[in-house]
Amino acid sequence: MNQTVWHHLNLCAQGDPRDTLQNAAIAVENGAIVWMGAASALPEPFAQWPREDLQGAWVTPGLVDCHTHLVYGGQRADEFAQRLAGVSYEEIARNGGGIVSTVRATRAASEESLFAQSAARLEPLLAEGVTAVEIKSGYGLELDAERKMLRVARQLGERYPVTVRTTFLGAHALPPEFAGRADAYIDEVCERMLPVLADEGLVDAVDVFCERIGFTIAQSERVFEAAARRNLPVKMHAEQLSNGGGAALAARYRALSSDHLEFLDEAGVAAMKEAGSVAVLLPGAYYFIRETQLPPLDLLRRYEVPIAISTDSNPGTSPATSLLLMMNMATTLFRMTVPEVLQGVTQHAARAFGDAERHGTLAVGRPADFAVWQVQSLAELAYWIGRPLCTRVVRGGKTVFDRTLFAH
């Protein structure tokens, strides 16, 4: 049997820096936590087990990046330059850029090339303590290319020490071949693409981009109805550029989350609270497109809607591969507190991810998936910009990343 006592550590088991234990220990057997608490109270049966000394480091649950578009071909740096010159995100999209330009690159890429490009974006996240990541499709916009994206996402989870959950985002944008025929494309998404991909075991959840440059409320509901027929949970890109009522629709379908939410109103917040949906805020996109409308933090707090933070890693509006940077942006741009952002990448992110039973908190009986931080205070996770803070990542009780190996 594989038995280890991790000791000489400070423990933040719930991802809440207001609830910690100094000088703690964690006993792990066969990949699962069998005991944790004050080191001085370590039960005698565990005292003879092999030990790992963490030298006073902080331990948190492995981080969860619950909204990403990691799998795609190419990049959109030239469009970034256009925006710097004054062209809006919506103008670029209407002129054939934006999502559709990434669609062309993704369709053209081989599966092997797509894996290599995506792995290069995943690896920095893993080095920052991420042990679970959601990956959306949506840059294929036809069956074979969407299948290719989802297959690559599955391969990332098989070849790297990370839990990957896949989200079918066929309703991300209107592909060129369906120009002017949005309802017909939704027919394709609901009646052909989703059934085939779900039957192939490639879909864990379903998402839709409900927005003026995306899909209408009625079209979005058709996608949700198709997901419900497959018993698949749903998510929504909602209220990013306007208040279209998407979050309220998503709440009617008990969505795992509604994401972006800069233009969310009180009725939408109340609906999310009633449905138990998580508000996933994406400061990278807010920053990158120079948005000025802040998400309604005070309303979300008043209604006690759980708030998650994610990278939204994507080529057009958030080319981010650092969840710690997103924590910093959430504090500085959204005025969130350190406890809010740390819970936003652990326990609340795990709910939005759709697997809070395994991820987001540490407890007896759960997998020993945790991140080790060489910091004096957990506030440093949201404080430093660009400084490597994660010294070790443990997954299933085994070290899968050790920064000291790269020290020399």
Written description of the protein model:
By secondary structure, the chain is α/β, with parallel strands linked by helices. The protein contains 16 helices and 15 strands. It has helices at 44-47, 77-84, 89-94, 99-108, 111-126, 143-159, 182-199, 217-229, 246-252, 266-275, 283-288, 297-302, 323-334, 338-344, 347-353, 380-383, and strands at residues 3-11, 21-29, 32-38, 51-61, 63-65, 130-136, 163-171, 205-208, 235-238, 257-260, 278-281, 307-309, 370-373, 390-395, 398-402. The strands form three sheets. The protein has a seven-stranded mixed sheet with strand order 3-2-1-4-13-14-15, with no helix packed on it. It has a four-stranded parallel sheet with strand order 5-6-7-8, with helices on both faces. A hairpin with a 2-residue loop joins strand 2 (21-29) and strand 3. Helix 9 (246-252) packs parallel to helix 10 (266-275) and helix 13 (323-334) crosses helix 14 (338-344). The longest helix is centred in the middle third of the chain and has 18 residues, at 182-199. The mean pLDDT is 96.
